[in-house]
Amino acid sequence: MRAEISTLFGLDIYSDKGLYVGKVDDVELDLNEQKIIGIAARKLNPSLFDQNGVIIPFRWVVAIGDIILMRQVAKHFKKPAEKKNKDEGT
């Protein structure tokens, strides 16, 4: 999968289940390996995130086109209150 890095900025990010995750704000690069290692996302889905931005590991990306499709978002990102409730068994 090859593309100009600048074409990624502003793309919407969705999970493989069709859930909106956020919008690409920046990319994290490994210059020695010449590859993308993460995607910085902003304008996040408030039902998933409390913070203003996150870095999504590039290995979670399934496809890039008009949008970025990633896998397993709900499993990796939950609001702290949801994690706490799950840990307490409620």
Automatic annotation (TrEMBL):
Gene3D superfamilies under this entry? Answer: PRC-barrel domain
| Taxonomic placement | Archaea, Methanobacteriati, Methanobacteriota, Stenosarchaea group, Methanomicrobia
Question: What is the protein name for this chain?
Answer: Photosystem reaction center subunit H
Which InterPro entries does UniProt cross-reference here? PRC-brl_dom, PRC_barrel-like_sf
Q: Which organism is it from?
A: Candidatus Ethanoperedens thermophilum
Domain PRC-barrel spans what residues? Answer: 4-74
